[in-house]
Design a protein that fits this description.
By secondary structure, this protein is of the alpha/beta class. The chain has 24 helices and 27 strands. A hairpin with a 2-residue loop joins strand 24 and strand 25. The two termini are 45 Å apart.
């Protein structure tokens, strides 16, 4: 193990950081600005707002202002950018950049944090490469003295990508993309109810002039009938193909059709495909009542999602660390996200790859364009293709001489309901049918299994499930221990060859019990896969679970409202209790996303001294212009320091300074329609799980005996996201990583983000940055051979 590295060794004393937003605005930019400002001040650097992007840098004067801790209070939940953004022609000229350099040197700024798209970041890099020449020119003109030229000899640049289109290569998600998907899905869900009433077809046009990410993911998240994106244009004759798919879906008694068109959609000859063109085609060919909805700037607006706030806060802190560690030789870098990991990549490598996508599309090399967009984009596209079209009987895999390909696969939900479970079931059923299997739905978990509540489920049965909250199949927390014989009997009766269990900690425990009971029950010697789905995010073997994002958004939305209430009444502190069992994920990440002052969790023990310190911290805060407080507490964080106790303690100790209110959020965290992230994650992870089951079924089929027999450890796996990858892990191996008494993993990645929440709330703390720092190179996929 390498020595741990802590950021306390990095000092910003004597350094000045300028932060600007440029290009199109995106929700979450303010969270990034807030993180840069607070982290910068925390490490004793001076931090400056550069208003109106590069235009403000060129104009100087009141556009470049030093800021304080309080300057960024209450902006976390605000959409757009509070420091303004403008496209600047002057900065594209050397004269403009000369003025900008002069204005920065006057303030002593040699560290720039640029939040924008590829154009803004390219401009920043040009500025950096010209910097020493610009200073020499300024010195020769007498605008700056020789001492200043030497003192500010080099400029450091760190970029963060703020773009709702997710059109920047090198990062899985750009700041603003998740929030834009929230806006799109809110509209789609609303449209679906009216479309169903009148049996209408709706053509939705979403943003994405050069990138189809928003169109593709929203199509995946709502189960759209057809999608048009620039990177993957339809083949010749798409008009016939689209109309036949729409009429087939209507023939299956589907009352509505949804078609999603990216604004930059093209055909294979690079000719535009417009939403009006698609609408006219449907009306002329099929005679369906068809309407067009163009979402436009609605997608840019509104409050940022929990995901975007956390992403932007992580990126902002990482950007400051990158600036503190930068040397004159360090290339300009961009802070990005790979899987669940924050990484630093050379800015120009990412820009070059982004430009290569457009070049590939211009040259009609569409397969290269898809590959260059990255692994996440490819997975989304492949999953959509598998789920959108039902194969005909002749296209399905048939029995092969060497092995059987048609098996019976059962799907069930176990544990508490989690938003996104239904999207996962839909994906599992459709991928299973595509693979040639018979899919069986089990209602009410293992309890229903033992009672024989098992029935075959078809392609059409799961239509419209992606947007539904809760669990349509029904779910119970019952473990299979008491029902082993009956479950084995039902497996025998229905010839179940594989099992997909979608659920939380109980799903993990249940499959562990089945694996351990294989010596007694041969029926359990089949491939079994767990897909983690729980709002608590407490399943070992995965960083994220289906449902946690939806729950986090519900918490953050409530906290936003409560903060507004507290701001109105002044000098008020709210104590909010979240769910999660013994897992503090929701409390900790909710606190980070809502800008809370403290979060009490089971994983980090606290005592009366810490509670007293928090009260004193809030007392000091009330002397500033930010006269409100927000404290989150996980439901099982302490046996004795209950929500009531903390409320009463704060009320007593804060007498005369602030008053208190408490709020127990309860089951509202479990309900509601799934967020776009949970729909997408549930769909992709479940599809991958079924493909794995198919592979295992073929491997474990004993042709001589005509049956499946799998009893190795790696035939009962949990599919989880670990840092950057989705990986299958045998449940037996995960047993040692689990605290069964408290139903949590022994190690949890998000605890590393805990100091982040404390730093942004103005607490002195220690922050392990061992994972950060190393500049990586962009992975370029090999071009596809013709």
């Amino acid at each position: 193990m390498p020595d741990k590295k802590f950021f306390e060794n990095l000092s910003g004393a004597g350094k000045a950081i300028g932060v600007l937003t440029s290009g199109g605005d995106a929700q979450g930019m303010n969270a990034a600005v807030r993180a840069v400002v607070r982290m910068g001040i925390y490490v004793e650097a001076k931090v400056y707002f550069i208003y109106e992007g590069y235009e403000g840098m060129v104009d100087g004067g009141e556009n470049i202002v030093e800021v304080t801790w309080e300057s960024v209070s209450s902006i976390l939940q605000v959409g757009g950018t509070v420091i303004g953004s403008a496209r600047c022609k002057a900065f594209r000229t050397r004269e403009g950049r000369l003025k900008a350099a002069c204005n920065l040197v006057k303030c002593g700024i040699t560290n720039l944090c640029v939040i924008g798209g590829d154009g803004s970041l390219t401009g920043a890099n040009i500025f950096r490469t010209e910097w020493s020449g610009l200073l020499e020119e300024l010195a020769s003109q007498g605008e700056i003295d020789e001492e200043a030229r030497k003192k500010y000899a080099y400029l450091n640049i760190v970029g963060m990508v703020g773009s709702i289109d997710n059109d920047f290569c090198g990062t899985d998600m750009t700041i603003g993309t998740d929030s834009a998907l929230h806006r799109i899905i809110e509209v789609v869900d609303a449209i679906m109810t009216t479309a169903q009433s009148h049996q209408r077809t709706f053509v939705l046009e979403v943003m994405g002039r050069h990138c189809g990410y928003l169109a593709l993911v929203s199509a995946l998240a709502c189960g759209a009938d057809y999608v048009f994106i620039p990177e993957y244009p339809p083949e010749e004759g798409w008009e016939d193909h689209m109309c036949s798919r729409l009429s087939e879906n209507r023939a299956r008694k589907k009352r509505l059709n949804i078609i999603i068109v990216a604004e930059g959609a093209i055909d294979s000859n690079n000719q535009p495909i417009t939403s009006e063109q698609v609408k006219d085609l449907v009306v002329q060919r099929l005679g369906y009542d068809t309407r067009v909805t163009i979402l436009g700037h609605v997608q840019r607006g509104g409050t940022p999602s929990a995901f975007d706030r956390i992403l932007a806060s992580r990126m902002g802190v990482e950007a400051v660390l990158a600036l503190l560690e930068a040397t004159p030789e360090t290339p300009a870098c961009v802070v990005s996200l790979s899987g669940n990991q924050a990484v630093r990549l050379p800015l120009m490598e990412c820009v070059q790859m982004t430009q290569d996508v457009q070049k590939a599309m211009d040259e009609k090399n569409f397969s290269d364009a898809v590959q260059l967009r990255g692994r996440s984009f490819q997975n989304n596209l492949n999953t959509y293709k598998l789920l959108s079209t039902k194969k005909t009987a002749s296209e399905l895999p048939t029995d092969d001489i060497s092995y059987n390909t048609n098996f019976n696969v059962a799907v069930l939900n176990v544990g508490a309901p989690a938003a996104g479970m239904n999207a996962a079931v839909r994906a599992a059923v459709r991928i299973g049918i595509t693979e040639g299997h018979k899919m069986f739905a089990v209602t009410d978990g293992f309890e229903g299994f033992s009672k024989g509540q098992i029935k075959e489920i078809s392609w059409g049965d799961v239509g419209g499930w992606t947007g539904q909250g809760g669990s349509i199949l029904g779910t119970k927390r019952t473990l299979p221990a008491k029902h082993m014989e009956k479950i084995a009997e039902q497996m025998r009766n229905h010839t179940i060859n594989a099992l997909l269990v979608i659920g939380g900690f109980e799903a993990f425990e249940s499959c562990l019990l089945l694996a351990e009971a294989r010596s007694r029950f041969e029926e359990f010697c089949i491939p079994i896969c767990i897909v983690p789905a729980t709002i608590s995010n407490n399943v070992p073997g995965t960083d994220l679970s289906i449902g946690a994002d939806t729950s986090l958004n519900a918490i953050v939305e409530t906290c936003d409202r409560i903060k507004l209430s507290a701001s109105g009444t002044k000098r008020r502190v709210f104590i909010i209790e979240t769910m999660g069992g013994y897992c503090g994920y929701l409390a900790n990440m909710g606190a980070l996303a809502a800008g809370a002052d403290a979060a009490y969790i089971f994983e980090e023990k606290f005592d009366i001294r810490e509670l007293q310190a928090n009260v004193e911290h809030l007392t000091e805060k009330m002397k500033t212009s930010i006269q409100r407080g927000l404290v989150l507490r996980n439901e099982n964080s302490s046996e004795n320091y209950t929500t009531d106790f903390i409320y009463q303690l704060y009320s007593e100790e804060g007498k005369g300074v602030f008053d208190c209110r408490k709020n127990v959020l309860g089951h509202m965290q479990q309900g509601g329609a799934p967020s776009p992230f949970d729909r997408n994650f549930g769909t992709k992870i479940s599809a991958k799980a079924v493909l794995w089951l198919s592979k295992k079924l073929k491997e474990s089929y004993r042709r001589g005996e005509g049956r499946v027999f799998a009893n190795t450890d790696d035939s009962v796996c949990l599919l989880g996201m670990r840092r950057r990858n989705l990986i299958f892990q045998p449940v037996i191996e995960l047993k040692g990583d689990t605290d069964f008494e408290h139903r949590i993993p022994k190690e949890q990645w998000w605890l590393k983000l805990r100091p982040l929440m404390k730093i942004l709330a103005k607490y002195k703390t220690s922050y392990d940055i061992s994972d950060a720092g190393q500049l990586e190179h962009v992975h370029r996929p090999k071009p596809v051979e013709a």
